Amino acid sequence: MDETLLVGGTTVLLRSTEAGLQTLLIRRPERGSFAGAWVFPGGVTEEADAAGAATEVQTAERAAARECEEEVGVRPERLTALSCWVPPVEAPKRVRTWFFLAQAPDTAVHAAPDEVVDVQWIAPADALRRHADGDMVLYPPTWITLRWLAARSSVDEAVAAASAPERYTTVLLGGGVFVWEGDAEHPAGGTGRHRLDTSSLPWIHTRD
């Protein structure tokens, strides 16, 4: 594990509705990291997050909860690690980011004006459709997570399915193709395909 990378935590807030599972997405301002994109609340760890933490995951979990409260006014009480994302070497700012699932408390969300342009509860499949139509800007970690969520019908089902965090060490091939562990063209080795083709809409995820 590269100890030189910054570490971050992201909260994937979930709620079960009569229509199915929904998640909270926020839209970033047209500046800085993820400019104009829809993402989950999150950010880089701070010194206070690491105080007394035994592992990187615990530090990231504290950061995820803190950032969620700062950005949308909601602090989740119980988080479940879903995945760990390592950005490609080409990324302008490299942060190893842990994604955590959390059931949303029964409180209203309030967007932080300096960090969040818009907030929306949305079904994962609807977000993916809007992205395919060019109506919503997403980045690969968000897209992959939404695709995973789209196969779940409730918060309980999603949390139960997150039995072990999956690692995504991202390698960018030419033509906008991202590959992860298990893909034959990933440096870690593999015999199959585990990749996302972002060269055109809709994006195509292949895994075998």
From TrEMBL:
Residue span(s) of domain Nudix hydrolase: 5-150
Name of protein: NUDIX domain-containing protein
PROSITE patterns, alphabetized: NUDIX
Alphabetized InterPro entries for the sequence: NUDIX_hydrolase-like_dom_sf (IPR015797), NUDIX_hydrolase_dom (IPR000086), NUDT19 (IPR039121)
Keywords: Hydrolase, Magnesium, Manganese, Metal-binding
Domain of life (superkingdom): Bacteria
The protein's required cofactors: Mg(2+); Mn(2+)
Record has Mitochondrion as a keyword: no
Pfam families cross-referenced by the UniProt entry: NUDIX
Gene3D superfamilies: Nucleoside Triphosphate Pyrophosphohydrolase
Gene Ontology molecular functions: hydrolase activity, acting on acid anhydrides, in phosphorus-containing anhydrides; metal ion binding
